[in-house]
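Q: Structure for this?
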Amino acid sequence: MITVDGKRLLDDLRTLATFGKVGTGVNRLSFSPEDRAARDWLCGRMREAGLEAAIDAVGNVYGRAPGTRRTVLLGSHTDTVPNGGWLDGALGVIYGLEIARRWLEVHPGGKTGVDAISFQDEESTYLACLGSRSFSGALSEAELAGARGPGGRPLTETLREAGYAGRLAARLDPARHVAYLEGHIEQGPRLEAEGCRIGVVTGIVGIRRHQVVFTGRADHAGTTPMDLRQDAGAALVDLAHELLGEFRKAAGPQSVWNLGNVVFAPGAANVVPAEARLTVEFRDTEPAVLDRFEAIVRACVERYDGRSRVRCAATRTLAISPAAMDARLGEVLRQAAARHDVAAMSLPSGAGHDAMVLAAHVPTAMLFVPSRGGRSHDVAEDTAEADIVLGANVLMTAVERLLTGE
Amino acid sequence: MITVDGKRLLDDLRTLATFGKVGTGVNRLSFSPEDRAARDWLCGRMREAGLEAAIDAVGNVYGRAPGTRRTVLLGSHTDTVPNGGWLDGALGVIYGLEIARRWLEVHPGGKTGVDAISFQDEESTYLACLGSRSFSGALSEAELAGARGPGGRPLTETLREAGYAGRLAARLDPARHVAYLEGHIEQGPRLEAEGCRIGVVTGIVGIRRHQVVFTGRADHAGTTPMDLRQDAGAALVDLAHELLGEFRKAAGPQSVWNLGNVVFAPGAANVVPAEARLTVEFRDTEPAVLDRFEAIVRACVERYDGRSRVRCAATRTLAISPAAMDARLGEVLRQAAARHDVAAMSLPSGAGHDAMVLAAHVPTAMLFVPSRGGRSHDVAEDTAEADIVLGANVLMTAVERLLTGE
């Protein structure tokens, strides 16, 4: 059973974290100078490991095992959210680098091997999962042309300036890639709460978002009697309260929902709110549960529209389908964990990942390691070093099994 | 029975509305160039009317009937809210000008008369009711020194720049001023709804405001199970819903309340709200009712504090005591209305006015005329010309009664 070089793995992770370092975290928005420098460094490390590596037309860093015909693809992303953590994405990318490198050390000149990749812009600075969508052939020219980033800057302009435009786009090859495996921090508290060191992802949740807008009338809150008001704010409070109660009743065992934002306008203490906006999001791995939640939103909005002369309307602003992970690969991961004397916990991923995009095109699985305190998208994000190394070894064992049957 | 010159009254009102004109409304923040030009114009009109007029140390425009020992003081304010209406404040000031002028025409050289005043900054650009508080001797040097306006500019600097600093401050004189009468638009829909053309104010409501702050924890809204969240937003929705129900039960016949603003932070669709802020305001003419509402806020906050590990705390950010109007003066106004064949409606004022300040020092009454559609603090603010003139005539008749007993 091959094991990774834990020190080398951690050293590479720590080095990657110096690009855009912010305290204990990282600020490395896709295509920023820090992000591009990190990509150049990663490409160099892949070459040093013996991979044929290059940065492609959208910024993906792709390292291929030389002389191979069948490979397992490992990766994730190296871009971050603003002031994010040092492991979100980076972990899976360095897992790919180390496992590909270790495989080449043990099996030099083999016909099978490991390809490693860092997908561009998973965090949606310009276009969510830009890299994995391009790699999977699931990105239209129109989307690419229409994408804009910070300050409304066109993606095409940014690609030109970065020197990526005009390069070849790396592509998934079903004849070559037998599986895609993504290691990632959980970004939630469940593994830690259960005392589990390895999670195997059953599926990535689907997400739907609605913007509910209440339109009333601004009136002087001192001089307008209660029964003559068209109070958009009070209507929002009543609907939101009802929504939370209904969601609780309709929830499946894994459902989550969030009223993430409320905005009142004009928002003054002495003015009856003329407009109120509520952001509603819910996630589940089951499309039927998502449909149930959506029906609740629509029914609530219909019931409230016109009540106290306040108009109420909802717009669906996001719909991402759930993505099931490959059951056979999940079993391989669980068995690999057992070979390291660890019982893996099965759990859904409540966050989106590049694996969500790949799953539609190639057998895909995800492995989670615990997040300290469940924290992520924050400089507080962290994972015990022992868990980081264990995750790499479980993936290494799974890769060995997939490539050699052992 | 003396009557006012309706055309002259309307002409002066229309001329005043040209200072800071914005469509059908007015933008005339206190101490702005438009406001200062309007004050200079008003001071000139007072002098043309035969009053001894001057602008005082804080910007009050005060016109005294020459040679008199006993006067009725009439006035209001000429500053406006941003993009406000043409009548809020201006009406009562031009009533004062016209009634003082008409009195001098009918009783030249009399020992009794009418003083007219435009108080500075009723609308709180620097310091709420600055002018009437200074005039009433209810303003400390420390408050004056600490007041700041747009962009944090000290009031003292603005007074210097306007050339007002160093002047005498006009003062209320209990031996001279037998009463303060303020005409004003209702700024609400009640007179119009009841088909009444004249309102007599019973009292000005007290106001209390609370800022309720919920402190939870920001977590990823996809990866954090519902039972592990500390959701400040959901806590706010539940408390606000309960508060609205309790307020409805505790309300007196004139009570009004408003949840004027809600702010969630960080306010992202996919992040559990870490903090949520709710602005609560309630108004009533009865201190006991205000106390009842306040007890509800405190009890709710106590019940919610710690629920689902979310902290909840409330801070009282404003407390203005109710101000009763002088009952005898109210009766004089009602009788004056009857002499014009109009039945006056008694109602509280839900908004604050300079009369609220004066009432603690001199017998005070307020007369309301209807606001079209109840609109105010908006360029849509308007009142029928016939109602404007009627209001002036009712006040004129009341003044005649107070000064001559007729």
